[in-house]
Amino acid sequence: MSAEPMPTDALTDRAQESAAPSPPAAGGEVRSGPGRAESGVLNVFSHAFLIAWVVMAAGPLIWVALTAFRPTADFLNDPMGLPTTLHWQNFAHAWTEAKIGRYAFNSVIILAGSLTGTMLLGSMAAYVIARFTFPGNRFVFLLFAGGMMFPVILALIPLFTIMDNMSLLDTRPGLIIAYIAYSLPFTTFFLTSFFRTLPSGVQEAAMIDGASHTRTFFQVMMPMAKPGLVSIGIFNFLGQWNQYLLPLLLNNEDENNYVLPQGLAALTVSQGYAGDWGALFAGLTIAMVPVLVVYAVFQRQVQAGLTAGALK
Amino acid sequence: MKTETRPATGGQTSGKRPVGRTRASGGAAFALAVVLPPRFTPERVRNDRRYRTLDKYRFIVGFLALPLAFYAVFVISPFLQAIYYSFTDWAGGATANFVGFDNYVKMWNDERFWASLQSSLLLLVVVPLVTLALGIFFAYMITAGGRHRRGQAVSGVAGSSLYKIVYFFPQVLSIALIAVVWQQVYSSRSGLLNGLLGSVGLEGLEQRWLGGDYKLALFSTMAVIAWSFVGFYVVLFSAAMGAIPKDIYEAALLDGAGRAATFFRVTLPLIWDTVRTGWIYMGIQALDAFAVVLIMVPPHALKVTPVYLYERFREGQFGYATAIGVVLLVLSMVFTLIVMRIGRRDQIEY
């Protein structure tokens, strides 16, 4: 393939090209119009800006990860230095003394319950709303959709007493239920529109073949809705894994029950007092790296899942 | 499956004759069928048309009951209670006396509340503008900043997905983690920022970024929130820009539009709906700013309204705290309405 410009460009650019010096790159060309700029130059220009933000976005995180390998004394002497040897002791401290391992374990337990519950209850409600006509259908839909508008902080205090009255305060089931309840509005809203797009023929065929409604849902409709379930599942996974406000309110009594974000917030206090900055950075790294690695592997789905909310 | 819309009547009204082959043998079989799985329901009942209605509604109720119960008890009811409690002197105990607008009057005269609201409003106005501007700028660089190849009117830069991956990093991290990371970056003694300034010979610019001056703490907070959301908007806007058909750009090019004109006359109007949605979303995030400020900023330097609310809650002033929450709700609604209003344009379909 030659790098010849196509006719449309040739037309617009011919006039300029005689006057302007040839662009260095083969595909480069000169644009006409008021904002004329050489595309080769602009390309370098845009890469420069884009790389600057790469440094901005990743810089602090890389600094944290590098510092995690340095002894605290070194770090206090020169916060900018690079690790000379790999000081793994920081990670051991973070895991045991700063209890990052324990907090991560708590998070996993909570998520196992809350994510399953959210996906199950959310898709059940969404399926019924999307595929069945019944009195009050619209009302139920708007009820869920309306819940997305309210700032959670408003509900905080009554939620606290409701949980207290039901003896669910500072318990794992309580936190799981709260995660599910506050994830339901968006999950149901998103999945309702998704279930609506599925063809109705398959559902009817399953019913004619004698499958019950329940069986049709689990064995026919759920597998068909997989792309939507994956998107919203990632959205909920990250949202619940990173949740800070609800555990701060509902899981604040015993430090041993903290979930990971609470544990990280507590790190500054505990490791700050102990003067063990190395463990602080190691703790941050332990919390950060697995999420970033998983994200890098599934980046397309994650980006789609997280931006799905704003596009609706 | 949107066949029957007849409400459940229990199938027992005398006016409605069953159309099925058998005349239903009365209430007993049907009452039983409500609780029996289809497999154990007698054939005779199952073939009755009324049974299908019953089966359908049984399914609907069964599937909706639990989600709705969770939602009603733990989400709807707290919101409604919060609005009620904002008119009481509730302090967490069993009694809550109705006090009318006393909490709101108290708020009106509470200087610390106004100070926190000032910070929150500044965040609400400034952060979305900065974040969205940066997001649009980088998204345009990614989708249209590339070298022209073979006559394309616009082309993306090389490695665009790599840029997007890195930009999106802060979005997948917990806001608590981000707050702790930036606390270290801003640290005046051993932070990255002062270290960088020192290493390039700008010791004079080293600051106590968080613990000293109010304005500086506010600025530092804004920077962190913007930093954590820019990548989200780059991904969002570059997806929206990628959906614009290429022939529109070609037409603009033929008409002699340069890059700036193409951007302001073609790209921006065509993604405007996404920008507006993103603006509202970002505003609500900035108005919240709870975790960042609570974890990162020392309490004496800066307070935003949600943090002020949280402190009143910890002090046991439940009624007053919920009233502050209601003000935050009203504020976010007003903000949404304003953005919808000034952002209104004709829909462009393509």
Describe the protein.
The complex is a heterodimer of chains A (312) and B (350). With 312 residues, chain A is mainly α. Chain A has a domain at 105-258 and 307-311: MetI-like fold. Helices cover 74% and strands 0% of the residues of chain A. The longest helix of chain A has 32 residues, at 100-131. The model of chain A is unreliable at 1-37 (pLDDT under 50). Chain B has two domains: 1-66, no CATH class; 107-342, Orthogonal Bundle (MetI-like fold). Chain B has helices at residues 27-35, 43-46, 49-85, 102-108, 111-144, 160-167, 169-172, 175-186, 192-199, 214-242, 246-254, 259-270, 272-288, 290-296, 305-314, 318-342. Mean pLDDT of chain B is 80; it is low at 1-24. The interface between A and B is large, with 119 and 118 residues.
Protein topology:
The complex is a heterodimer of chains A (312) and B (350).
Chain A: H1 7-19, H2 39-67, H3 72-77, H4 89-96, H5 100-131, H6 137-146, H7 152-165, H8 172-197, H9 200-208, H10 213-224, H11 226-241, H12 245-250, H13 260-274, H14 277-297, H15 299-311
Helix pairs in contact in A: 2-14, 4-14, 5-8, 5-11, 5-13, 6-8, 8-11, 9-10, 11-15, 13-14
Chain B: H1 27-35, H2 43-46, H3 49-85, H4 102-108, H5 111-144, H6 160-167, H7 169-172, H8 175-186, H9 192-199, H10 214-242, H11 246-254, H12 259-270, H13 272-288, H14 290-296, H15 305-314, H16 318-342
Family (chain B): Belongs to the binding-protein-dependent transport system permease family.
Domain ABC transmembrane type-1 (chain B): 117-339
Region (Disordered) (chain B): 1-22
